Amino acid sequence: PPKSLANGREPTPSAFAESHRKGKGMAELNAGWKRSFDVYDRIDKLGIDLMSKGEVLPAPKGRRICNLTFTPSGLLFTSGTGAGRGAVTNDDGDVEAGYEAGREAGIRHLRALHWGLDPEGTLNDIWYFVKCIGMVNSAGGGAFSKSPRVVDGYTKLFHDVFGGPLSEFAEDGMDSSLSGWHARSAVAGFDLPGHVLIEPEMIVQVDPALALKIIAGRGPQI
């Protein structure tokens, strides 16, 4: 099966995603933020492996923090996830390595979102992305000035999958949806735990009805 279907479950839309497609779930949004495509089709085209639930979301025993927190409003908060090693300098090679680490961090969050919504929902139930905070490991004192480029690796992943101006599927800077577009802060000038290169976090808006169902059935944290 395609890599994103490694769990053996067809990526058929949930009831929530079906109402999305019929214009109910996202009826209050501007048409530019509604999606006419299945995000799993894009994931397959991009060659992203969503792995298995056990690999991505281990049991909570002994863990200091959770991966995701759902709220009744449908706002979903991810914990920061690190990728890459070392500090970034203004050297072009360093910056591009940081960009790739940012993309890897984005894939890790994509996996967590996919499995965190499962089995009640799917990634198609994400309405839009709210805000990213991207923290980059670098020298302080204003010596490093390219944190936005590093965090672009993370940002672009969500444009690619959910739609946005930087997407692989955009034409002349416009995609068929803007639901992967988001507000962002890209900050640098400090070390990060584990000396990781980048640690981003994301706030996501999902269908509130789905969030309430997950909270009632499994609790707000995963």
Q: Any overview of this molecule?
A:
Strands 1, 2, 3, 4, 5 and 6 form a 6-stranded mixed beta sheet that branches. This protein has a single domain (3-57, 66-218), classed as RutC-like (60s Ribosomal Protein L30, Chain: A), CATH 3.30.1330. By secondary structure, the chain is an alpha+beta fold. The model is unreliable at 1-9 and 19-24 (pLDDT under 50). It has helices at residues 15-21, 39-45, 53-56, 92-117, 147-162, 208-218, and strands at residues 68-70, 75-78, 83-85, 126-137, 183-190, 196-206. Helix content is 32%, strand content 18%. The chain has 6 helices and 6 strands. The longest helix has 26 residues, at 92-117.
Give a quick summary of the entry.
The protein is α+β, with helices and mostly antiparallel strands.
SSE sequence, one letter per element:
HHHEEEHEHEEH
Q: Report helical residue fraction.
A: 25-40%
What is the quaternary state of this protein? single chain
CATH superfamily, called what? RutC-like
**What CATH architecture do you see?**
2-Layer Sandwich
Stretches where pLDDT is under 50 for at least 5 consecutive residues are 1-9, 19-24
Which structural class do the helices and strands define? alpha+beta
Radius of gyration: 17 Å
What is the beta-strand fraction? 15-25%
- CATH fold-level assignment: 60s Ribosomal Protein L30, Chain: A
What is the mean predicted local confidence, pLDDT?
Answer: 89
The gross shape turns out to be globular
Ends apart, CA distance between termini: 27 Å
The number of helices is: 6
**Major sheet:** 6 strands, mixed
> How many separate structural domains?
1
Q: Count the strands? A: 6
Give the CATH level 1 class.
Alpha Beta
